[in-house]
């Protein structure tokens, strides 16, 4: 079969369930040799314009379905005919998928054979059979006139629902009729009323709408009525089992049929709401026992916004904007809204609650009201959807909190690294203020020239002195005493002054940080500070002083004069410089190695912290889910208990009323006179 390019993409875009084709084949087979392959002739229900319909039984669930095996009609004829058939087919599927009504069959899914792309549609199976077969039955199994009125009313309700619930310009409806099991196809506009009139003639007369020899029921009635106005009343089905039609009811039904079959389309009945009202009055008047007037006055009816049928107010729910939905339509609405296929975005949009089907802006229906009007399956689906929404929200909340904690931790670690690098590279390391390169080659002269950028600078206060630093060192450096040898103070004096500068700059830098960051940065830099031979107690005092006197921050201070050693001769000085240079190189290597190890430790701690937080939040999520499940289970048990208590109270009240009634009857029997 080559219908894949036509049907498969459309079906796959729909929201219908897809069953394996082999399952459908097994469900429709029987014990005959040919029937073992599936789609047995004994399971054939009928044949329509798009294929043959079979009865199917799912052995796992004992659920029965009607399976339509689509034929090749969509690929026959001209291109225009194929397109017309394809549109009708898609319109039928789309309409049945979209609308839910007690008198319209529900489409459940489809199946496609992978090799041949043969397509099957799966519908719910209604056990009543077809209207055509039931009307042909005779004897006690014939359709009574009461049931025929109910079939006409149900059909009118379904068509009224379609007419009011969708754009009739695109309407094409087909469906099994509830318990009457009628299958038909309707066009739009006035033809809906005409088609309904033909079905009504079938119900009244029991005759087929047409025969292969060219006989048409409505032509026969129209021709007979032209000669005898009461021809239709005389043609009513009077076989055994149908019963005697009440004269007033028969006249009213015949009048409705004539109005639906008028030759001029504009004069026919256009509104199925009018038909529903008329048939409802006829059914209440002739098919049911009339209730007491006070009981009728006490019951307030309302029209369901979904099926447009009238129900007592107690048999449904009304939203804040006075929109009423009956219990049956409410169950369908809740099941559709609570299906597992519903995306989490749809649940979040309504917070897992059930709102008015019209989306009128009213508050959601309360859980206890839903419990009172839903069956157990629908309410379980509602609770399951609520749990899915609550779990998702809890998961999103926990994940958001975890990400915030991770981001905060990362920012904190990055901040600590930034401050630690600044102290290590800008304060504790002697560097050129112009190119930021560390300098290690101290030759004994305090007017230092950078070997990388040839910039002159002061090694004591790190001042950029342009091309020559001698004048600054001799007269302007705030960290040097203005007496003694200005340029050849030696390594001991340089180390002493640089140590005091490092202590002061570190204290001023740390004093500007917040307390929590200050503690972490100080702990991260402790090894480098100790290696720089800084006195930690003196550093703490300097930090407290800088915090108490922030106006002194950054102000130059005269440091105490370092002890002046005896100057060695040139040979000794050269040897000392070489040793110091080697020591500086070794110190630099050691510091770089320590810095790399510290960085690796920090990275490892960061990874471990992230894993710990993820594990902690994962455990919190599991615990929250358990708590929510337990909470919803307790709520469900409470509601079930309340429902049972309510049922017991109603039973007790009924028993008491029965006891009172029996007592009254007994009392009346005792007082009645006795005649011999």
TrEMBL record:
Protein's recorded name: Protein kinase domain-containing protein
One Gene Ontology term, aspect cellular component: plasma membrane
Binding site for ATP: 69
InterPro entries: Kinase-like_dom_sf, Prot_kinase_dom, Protein_kinase_ATP_BS, Ser-Thr/Tyr_kinase_cat_dom
Keywords: ATP-binding, Nucleotide-binding
Region named Disordered: 623-676
Basic and acidic residues biased stretches: 623-643
Residue ranges of every copy of the Protein kinase domain listed in the record: 39-400
Domain of life: Eukaryota
Molecular-function GO terms, alphabetical: ATP binding; protein kinase activity
Native source organism of the sequence: Cymbomonas tetramitiformis
Keyword Signal part of the UniProt annotation: no
């Amino acid at each position: 079969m080559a219908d894949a390019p036509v049907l498969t993409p459309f079906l796959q875009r729909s929201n219908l369930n897809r069953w394996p084709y082999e399952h459908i084949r097994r469900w429709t087979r029987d014990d005959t040799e040919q029937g073992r392959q599936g789609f047995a002739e004994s399971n054939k229900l009928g044949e329509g314009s798009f294929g043959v319909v079979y009865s199917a039984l799912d052995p796992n669930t004992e659920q029965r379905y009607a399976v339509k095996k689509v034929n090749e009609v969509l690929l026959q004829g001209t291109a225009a005919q194929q397109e017309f058939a394809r549109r009708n087919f898609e319109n039928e599927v789309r309409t049945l998928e979209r609308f839910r009504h007690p008198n319209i069959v529900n489409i459940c899914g489809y199946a496609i054979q992978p090799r041949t792309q043969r397509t099957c549609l799966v519908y719910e199976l209604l056990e009543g059979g077809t209207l055509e077969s039931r009307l042909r039955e005779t004897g006690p199994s014939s359709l009574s006139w009461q049931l025929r009125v109910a079939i006409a009313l149900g059909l009118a309700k379904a068509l009224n629902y379609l007419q009011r619930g969708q754009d009739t310009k695109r309407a094409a409806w087909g469906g099994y009729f509830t318990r009457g099991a009628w299958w038909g196809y309707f066009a739009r506009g006035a033809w809906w009323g005409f088609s309904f009139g033909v079905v009504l003639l079938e119900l009244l007369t029991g005759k087929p709408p047409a025969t292969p020899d060219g006989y048409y029921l409505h032509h026969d009635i129209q021709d007979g009525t032209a000669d005898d106005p009461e021809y239709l009343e005389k043609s009513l089905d009077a076989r055994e089992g149908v019963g005697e039609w009440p004269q007033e009811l028969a006249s009213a039904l015949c009048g409705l049929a004539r109005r639906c079959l008028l030759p001029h389309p504009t004069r026919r009945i256009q509104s199925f709401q009018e038909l529903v009202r008329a048939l409802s009055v006829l059914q209440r008047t002739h098919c049911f026992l009339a209730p007491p007037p006070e009981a009728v006055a006490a019951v307030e009816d309302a029209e369901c916004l979904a099926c447009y049928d009238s129900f007592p107010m107690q048999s449904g729910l009304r939203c804040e904007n006075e929109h009423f939905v009956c219990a049956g339509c409410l169950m369908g609405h809740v099941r559709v809204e609570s299906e597992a296929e519903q995306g989490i975005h749809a649940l979040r949009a309504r917070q897992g609650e059930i709102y008015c089907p019209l989306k009128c802006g009213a508050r959601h229906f309360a859980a206890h009201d839903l419990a009172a009007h839903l069956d157990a399956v629908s309410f379980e689906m509602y609770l399951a959807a609520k749990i899915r929404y609550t779990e998702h929200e809890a998961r999103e909340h926990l994940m958001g909190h975890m990400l915030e904690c991770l981001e905060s931790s990362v920012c904190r670690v990055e901040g600590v690294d930034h401050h630690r690098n600044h102290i290590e590279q800008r304060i504790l390391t002697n560097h050129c203020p112009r190119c930021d390169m560390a300098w290690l080659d101290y030759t004994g002269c305090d007017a230092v020239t950078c070997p990388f950028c040839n910039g002159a600078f002061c090694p004591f206060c790190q001042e950029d002195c342009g091309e020559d630093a001698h004048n600054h060192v001799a007269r302007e450096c705030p960290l040097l005493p203005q007496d003694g040898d200005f340029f050849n103070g030696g390594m001991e004096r340089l180390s002493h002054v640089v140590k005091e500068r490092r202590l002061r700059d570190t204290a001023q830098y740390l004093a500007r940080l917040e307390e929590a960051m200050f503690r972490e940065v100080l702990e991260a830099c402790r090894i480098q500070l100790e290696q720089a031979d800084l006195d930690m107690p003196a550093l703490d005092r300097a930090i407290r002083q800088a915090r108490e006197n922030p106006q002194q921050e950054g102000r130059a201070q005269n440091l105490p004069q370092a002890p002046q050693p005896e100057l060695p001769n040139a040979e000794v000085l050269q040897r000392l410089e070489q040793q110091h240079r080697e020591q500086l190189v070794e110190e630099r290597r050691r510091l770089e190695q320590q810095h790399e190890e510290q960085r690796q430790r920090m990275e490892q701690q960061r990874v471990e912290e992230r894993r710990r937080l993820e594990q902690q939040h994962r455990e919190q999520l599991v615990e929250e889910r358990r708590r929510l499940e337990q909470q919803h289970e307790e709520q469900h048990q409470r509601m079930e208990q309340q429902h049972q208590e309510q049922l017991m109270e109603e039973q007790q009240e009924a028993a008491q009323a029965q006891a009172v009634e029996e007592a009254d009857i007994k009392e009346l029997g005792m007082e009645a006179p006795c005649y011999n």
